[in-house]
Amino acid sequence: MTLTSNDRRMLATGIVAVVAFLIALTLPFAGAANDTARGKELFEKRCSGCHSPDRDMEGPHLGGVYGRRSGAIPAFPYSQALKKAEITWNADTLDRWLTDPEQLVPNTDMAFRVEKADERAEIIRYLQELP
């Protein structure tokens, strides 16, 4: 079978379109990897004085925090306020918590805040990926 120049042009256009589509599909994932790396860096800078992904410190370990209920680690001595808060940690509640813990849960023990919204978002993306 012989392709005409019009057939070759249509085939080339189709191939270019498919390649462009596939590249466009991968761009969000490349950005997510960078966001997670930035979130890890911010977590280490802002949070690791009291928290670790895998062990309790002054604050509870945060591995698996996304989707967990507040005050749910039995061995950790949470404030009574946080134990009773019955919050499920997700993007919204973590953002509100990192913005102002006292406003979300009055009489909690955590006083630290992350002032910048973009930094909170990066940290939350990182926490969401922790096992």
Structure, briefly:
With 131 residues, the protein is mainly alpha-helical. Helices cover 56% and strands 0% of the residues.
Task: Explain what the structure shows.
Residues 26-33 have low confidence and may be disordered. Helix content is 56%, strand content 0%. The protein has one domain (36-129): Cytochrome c-like domain (Cytochrome Bc1 Complex, Chain D, domain 2, Orthogonal Bundle). It has five helices and no strands.
For the record, what is the CATH homologous superfamily label? Cytochrome c-like domain
Shape verdict:
elongated
Head-to-tail CA distance between termini? 55 Å
**Could you say what the CATH topology is called?**
Cytochrome Bc1 Complex, Chain D, domain 2
Indicate the mean pLDDT: 86
Q: Unreliable runs, pLDDT <50, ≥5 residues?
A: 26-33
CATH class category name: Mainly Alpha
**β-strand amount:** under 5%
Radius of gyration: 23 Å
What structural class do helix, strand and pairing data support?
Answer: mainly alpha
Order of helices and strands: HHHHH
Supply the CATH architecture.
Orthogonal Bundle
Helix proportion of residues, in percent? Answer: 55-70%
Q: Tally of extended strands?
A: 0
Count of distinct structural domains = 1
Largest sheet report: none
What's the number of helices?
5
